[in-house]
Amino acid sequence: MPYHKNGWTVFQVDIKHGIDIMDLNTEYLYEEVFDNAPNGTVDGVLAAPPCTDFATSGAQYWKQKDIDGRTEKSLELVRQVLRIVDVCMPDFWALENPVGRLPKLIPEIGNPWYFQPFWFGDAYTKKTGLWGNFKKPEKTNVVEPEKVCSQGSWVQKLGGKSERTKELRSQTPMGFAWAFYHANH
Fold first, then answer.
1. Whose C-alpha in 12, 54, 116, 155 is 20 to 30 A from the C-alpha of 147?
2. Considering its fold, how many domains does the chain have in total?
3. Predicted pLDDT of residue 63
């Protein structure tokens, strides 16, 4: 959102909005992205693949997901992001996911940089990792996180499998989003 609000041309790839990342190939990137991007280049790639098969909070389900193929399907989404980065060669890119097993399953992405929402004015905890090539935002507005349940923040209190609770759990904290934009534009 900060990039869009500041006049950047933003291509949102999300199956919920009718574009499946797995359908993107080099031809599509050149015809739909490069040809419609200012100066014919891609400045940045931001990716947030689903975490349900990687997050430590779901570790009790990993074995079954490995057996039934869900883990491999999710890993292919991450590999597709890496292929897109290779083709687009952006000035910066970041792949977001919470603490979990992603770097163990795809070690070539390296080690993440972790951040907390409360470093950027959002008063809750949700340790989140970023992999990629980007400038780390400075902590801009450190606040005391609110503890609303035994695990900590309101995010941990959101259980259930509904699309609404999944969306709430996966939202990017706005304070962090703006700090990331200011560090990477």
1. 54
2. 1
3. 96
pLDDT, tens digit, 9 for 90 and up, residues 54-107:
989 889 999 999 999 999 999 999 999 999 999 999 999 999 998 999 999 999
* Residue 138 amino acid letter: E
Q: Read off the CATH number of the domain in which 100 is found.
A: 3.40.50
pLDDT attached to residue 172: 87
Q: Which residues of 3-29 are buried (b: 16+ CB within 10 A; e: fewer)?
A: beeeeeeeeebeeeeeeebeebeeeeb
Q: How many residues does the chain have?
A: 185
- In angstroms, the CA 56 to CA 41 distance is 36
> Tokens at residue 145, please?
């996180």
Q: In this structure, are residues 119 and 176 in contact, taking their beta carbons and an 8 Å threshold?
A: yes
Question: Distance between alpha carbon 98 and the CA centroid of its chain, in Å?
Answer: 9
